[in-house]
Amino acid sequence: MKLKVTFQTNTGLQREHNEDTVLICGQVINQSMPEPVTRYFETAGAESWAVSDGLGGHACGALASYTLCSTLAACNLSAAPDLQSVLDRCQSRLAELMHNRPETHGLGATLAGVYEQEGALHAFNIGDSRIYHWQFGYLRQVSIDDVFGYDDDDPPELTGLDGHKLIAALGVEPVNNAPFAHYRPIRFGVTDRLLICTDGVTDIVSASEFEANMMSGDTEQVGDWLSARIKAGGAHDNFSFILIERLDD
Fold this sequence. Notes:
Layout: E1 2-10, E2 20-24, E3 27-29, E4 37-42, E5 48-54, H1 61-75, H2 83-100, E6 108-117, E7 120-126, E8 130-135, E9 138-141, H3 156-159, E10 170-171, E11 182-186, E12 193-197, H4 199-202, H5 207-213, H6 219-232, E13 239-248
Antiparallel strand pairs: 1-4, 1-13, 2-3, 2-5, 5-6, 6-7, 6-10, 7-11, 8-9, 8-12, 12-13
């Protein structure tokens, strides 16, 4: 499977530190990137991409998101017997940090990602970081927000719900079992696109804007538009996104 991937993680315009982390095929990145970067991959059936958002107001959000993405990279989701066992390992790693370093008690983060297994893609999330799939001219959200009052048939940007009232995240309490993740297989065809992003993106850019602009150019052009749009909207939070396009069979 040949893929074109454009991504960025950025501190934003009003925060002092970046508490987001992105995972790009085994590479863990949490340093603020001034502009989006594009890379090409010819996958071997064992790749993963993810964003993680350290919880604002909680201890060590940057450490939490970095730890989650690093643990995912080390686990090799594609070879794992099941997704939940990998997420339990992520949760255990955060619990271990809280146990060994009392100042980190309460650290936590959201997680949304896609991994390849035997030539197919699979999406998962915990929290309110999101995954969108563009296919056949339509955009749909394939992740499910873990927020109070969320309705899968009427997502928060359509109802005006506060997407920050989380009911699930990784970490937070020093327990070893992760919350159950939302999981969905994706039939990812040629010219399809995926967007994985934190709420620093979706707080500013609506689903209707994504849909209108997702095919306005190649992923580099869409990434440049998205980064500029977030900054024009104030970029009040850290923001991270990964755009993935399938190029051919």
